[in-house]
Amino acid sequence: MFGQDIGIDLGTATVIVYVKGKGIVLREPSVVAVDNLSGEVLAVGHEARRMLGRTPGNIIATRPLRDGVISNYTNTEKMLKYFINKIRGRFIFSPRIMICIPSQVTEVEKKAVIDAASNAGARRVYLIEEPIAAAIGAGLDISKPSGNMIVDIGGGTTDIAVISLGGAVVSTSIKVAGDRFDEAIVRYIKKKHNVMIGERTAEELKLNIGCVYPKFQDMEMDVRGRDLITGLPKTITVYSSEMLEALEEPSMLIVDAVHNVLEKTPPELASDISDKGIYMTGGGCLIDGLDKLIQEKTGINVMIAEDSISCVAIGTGKALDNLDNLDRNRR
């Protein structure tokens, strides 16, 4: 059997893999646990994520991607190799792989992604920009001469683009997304409660009671951390009204970026967007009230795409259908 075509959403927080003809076959955290002494990979994905912040000195659990780009080349390659082998199973030939990248990456960062995937076993590597993949995955018809606006909020980057005739007319990529929300929560709890919490606890707070728009009812959640005065473990109660305060800065940076893209959009496309609305994709867009906040600040209707977390991977998968045309053009 000939090698499969694989689409990979190589995210800062999660790697989602789409196989042509099968759909999404893998969804795992982009975390690698490595033995510091031998350099051997001990765990990848879910297993490695459980080790974050809980490892002895000789084991390091890290996320090899930061802000949407490769920060540790060796570990990214090992992680990709592990995921590709997990999917390939009995396939003899190497797969063709399409990987999505943030819209504003440099040539050096692109080359790092291509090299990592090639060394991990890809026969040929193609790149697609995240907002384009997100728009395809959200079910928008981007081939027509009509404006579509997409805001894709992942773990490391927020990609915003106005798309028409299959390409981005105006786009931007900012390094403010899910991770920045977590960091803002850690800082806020430290400053207000004198308690140090870990990234995973911050993420739980964000998912359970996090909001960027005032809620009707204040929610609460108990969290454990280390008291910075006594150095002992301490439990505190955190409210969603505090989360609103903690997350104000990163959420407003995203709103400003949306505003900037709208300002640069040609008038004809801007009128299309005000008719159709703005589509949001990515795990970061699920934070409570972000759609309402953008809608209030721009005056344009905001919709969260169905299965927003998987949109980029699904779009990458659908784009695999054009690989044969791309190969012909290359020749």
Secondary structure elements and pairings:
Elements: E1 5-10, E2 14-19, E3 23-29, E4 32-35, E5 41-44, H1 46-49, E6 59-62, E7 65-66, E8 69-70, H2 73-88, E9 96-101, H3 107-119, E10 124-129, H4 130-137, E11 148-153, E12 158-164, E13 167-174, H5 178-193, E14 195-196, H6 199-209, E15 220-227, E16 233-239, H7 240-246, H8 248-264, H9 267-276, E17 278-281, H10 290-298, E18 302-304, H11 311-319, H12 323-330
Helix pairs in contact: 2-3, 4-11, 5-6, 8-10
Indicate the CATH architecture of the largest domain.
2-Layer Sandwich
Q: Spell out the CATH superfamily of the largest domain.
A: ATPase, nucleotide binding domain
Cα separation of the termini: 24 Å
The H/E string reads EEEEEHEEEHEHEHEEEHEHEEHHHEHEHH
Uncertain segments: none
Gyration radius, rounded:
21 Å
What is the name of the CATH class of the largest domain?
Alpha Beta
CATH topology of the largest domain: Nucleotidyltransferase, domain 5
| Helix content, binned percent | 25-40%
Extended strand count: 18
**How many domains, in number, for the residues?**
3
List the total number of helices.
12
Q: What global shape is seen? A: flat
Largest sheet: 5 strands, mixed
Strand content: 25-35%
Instruction: Tell me the structural class.
Output: alpha+beta
Spatial sequence of strands, sheet with the most strands = 3-2-1-9-10
User: On the 0-100 scale, what is the average pLDDT?
Assistant: 90
